[in-house]
Amino acid sequence: MPATLAQLLARPELDLTLLTPPGLGDPETPVTWAHSSDLPDPTPFLAPGQVLLITGTPDDVDPYVARLAAHGVAGLGFGTEVVRAGTPEALVEACARHGLPLFEVPYRTPFIAIARFVADRVAADAYARSTWALRASRAISLAALRPDPLAAVLTELARQIERPVALIGADGALDRVSPSGALTAASRDALIAAADPLLRSRRRAAGSVATDAGAFALQTLGAAGRLRGVLAIGSEGLDPSAQQVVTGVVALAGLALEQSRATDAARARLRTAVWRALISGERALAESIAEPVLGPLPEAPVRVTVLGGTALTAAADWLESHVDGFFARDGQELVLVESEADTGPATAIAATTAARFDLRGGTSAPTALADLPTARAQAEVARQRATPKAPVPSFDDVAAAGMLALLQTPDARAVAQTALAPLTAADPGLTDLLRTWLDSDGVYDIAARRLGIHRHTLRARVAEAERLLGRDLSGFAARADLYAALRATA
C-alpha cells in the first residue's frame, strides 16, 4: 500500500521531526502524494490524503491551518533555514488545535526527497495491485475450467477480493452465496429486494444496496430481454484493481449462464412439441414425450391460459423455475395448462406472470384434455376482455355475462356506430327512445309511459327511425339487430 505518515516520519535519511503530539490525526493514513506550495490558500490544488510542504510562515496562521485540516490534508511539513530558522510556534499551536500533524524538515533534506519517497511507494503499490489483479484474474480463469464453472468462479472471486459474492437467479431467488454463510437473512432479503427491479426492467442495468454485511454492487447478467440473473458483490473499499477483476468475473459469469441456454432452448422446443401434439389430439404421443423430461401432464379437468406480450421469453424463463404445471411457447403466445384441482376458478400463477412481465391473456373454463382446441378458443375470447386492471380474465366470467357482453369490443362498436349513424345524424335523441322502447319489449303503452310521451307520438318516432334506417322494425330479427347495435354503443 502507499506510504503512511508514520512511515514517512520513520525514514532515517529524511530526518523529519514531528512537532505536534504523537496521537494527533491518524499516522496510518495512506499518503497519496507530497506537494510543495507557499500560496496563501493551496487547497484548490491539493487532494485529501496529500502532504503539504512549505517554507514560509502564512500570514493568517489559524485560518490557513483550518482550511488544510478541513480539506483532508494528511500532514504539513515546514522546511527550516530557508526563510527562517526553526518552525514558528504559532504554526505548531494552530496545527495542534485543528488536529493537523506538523513535522519539521531540516535544511539538508530537500523537498524532492520526500516527494520521491512518496512517489516510489505509490508506484510500488500500483505495481503490486496490478500484479495482484493479474494473478487473481488467472486464478478465476482457471476456476472457470472446473466442472461447475459458475460456482467455482464466484467462490474464487470472493476469496480474492475478501468480500461476499451472491448470485440472484432470473427467477428472483437467491441462487448461491460465497463464502457459504457469509450473509444474514436480513442481508439476503435486502439483496433480493434490490435485484427485483433490475430483473423486472428486463434491461442490462447496475445498482447498489446497503446491507448489514456492507455495501453491495449489483450487475445484471445476460442480454436485454433475457436476463439470466443479478450478480451482487461486496463493494465496500474496492480499489480500481479489484474493480477490474470484478468486471472480468461479470463477463465470465454471464458466459457460464449463457452456456445453459442451449439446454433451455431444447426444453422449450420439447414443450412446444408436446403442446402441438395435445392440440392435435395425440395425447398418447404427448405423454410419451413429456414424461421423461417434463414430468406427467396435468390431470383433467384443466384450464388453458393464453398470454401475449413483448416479454414472453423472460416470462418462460421465470415459469421454468416457478411452475410445476405444463406450459409452452406457441408462436407469439405463451400457453399454460393447469389442473383445475390446482388452480380453482382462476390461475394465480397466470395472474402473477402477467403482472410481473406486463402480459395480457385469458383463461378457459375447465375442460378435458381431449377438448384443448375448444379451451384455447375460450381463452382467446377471454383474452379480448383483458384490461390493465384485469390482465387475465376468465371465460367463466365472459360466459356468465351472456351473449350481449361480447358486443363490448372495438369491432362491434365500430359496426354499430355505422349502422346507427342515420339516427344520430338526424336526431341523437332517437337512440335513447328506441332503447327504452326495446327494453319495454316493444310495447308502446309501457314505453310511452316511461318516456313521458303519448303512445301515438312514440309510434311516429319509431316510424321515423324505420325510415332513417331503411328497415321494418316489426319483426324480431330486425329488433334484435337494432338492440345489439344500441348495446354495443352504450
Entry keywords:
single chain, about 500 residues, five-stranded mixed beta sheet
Task: Characterise the protein shown here.
The longest helix is centred in the N-terminal third of the chain and has 33 residues, at 111-143. It is built from 19 helices and 14 strands. The protein has a five-stranded mixed sheet with strand order 1-5-4-3-2. It has 490 residues and is an alpha+beta fold. The relative contact order is 0.05. Helix 4 (111-143) runs antiparallel to helix 5 and helix 5 (149-161) packs antiparallel against helix 7. It is 50% helix and 16% strand. The N and C termini lie far apart (78 Å).
Structural class: alpha+beta
Q: How many helices?
A: 19
Could you name the ranges where pLDDT drops below 50 across 5 or more consecutive residues?
none
Coarse morphology: elongated
Average pLDDT, all residues: 83
N-to-C CA distance = 78 Å
Question: Which oligomeric state applies?
Answer: single chain
Give a brief rundown of this model:
Helix content is 50%, strand content 16%. The chain has 490 residues and is of the alpha+beta class. Helix 2 runs parallel beside helix 3.
What's the arrangement of secondary structure elements?
Elements: H1 5-10, E1 17-18, E2 33-36, E3 50-54, H2 61-71, E4 75-79, H3 89-98, E5 102-105, H4 111-143, H5 149-161, E6 165-169, E7 174-178, H6 185-201, E8 206-211, E9 214-223, E10 226-234, H7 240-258, H8 261-279, H9 283-293, E11 302-308, H10 312-322, E12 326-330, E13 333-339, H11 340-343, H12 348-357, E14 360-363, H13 372-383, H14 395-400, H15 410-426, H16 429-439, H17 444-451, H18 455-469, H19 476-488
Parallel strand pairs: 2-3, 3-4, 4-5
Antiparallel strand pairs: 1-5, 6-7, 6-10, 8-9, 9-10, 11-13, 11-14, 12-13
Helix pairs in contact: 2-3, 4-5, 4-7, 5-7, 8-9, 10-12, 15-19, 16-17, 17-18
